Amino acid sequence: MVDAFGVFWGGEAVGLLPGALATFQKIKEQNTTIIIVSNSTRLTDREVSKYSKAGLHLGEHYDLFVSSGQITRDAIVSCRLPFSTPRYKYWLYGDRHPQHGSPSQELFENNLFSVASSIEDADFIYCGIPHKNGCDQESVDPFQEEIEALVKTGLVMLIANPDKTALEGRPSRPVVRQGSIGALYQEAGGKVCYFGKPYPLIFEYIQKWAVKHLGLEAWKDAMIIGDNCETDICGGNQAGIDTALITDTGVATEPILTLGIEKFLASLPMENRPKFLVSSFSTGV
Question: What is the pTM for the complete model shown?
Answer without folding.
Answer: 0.91
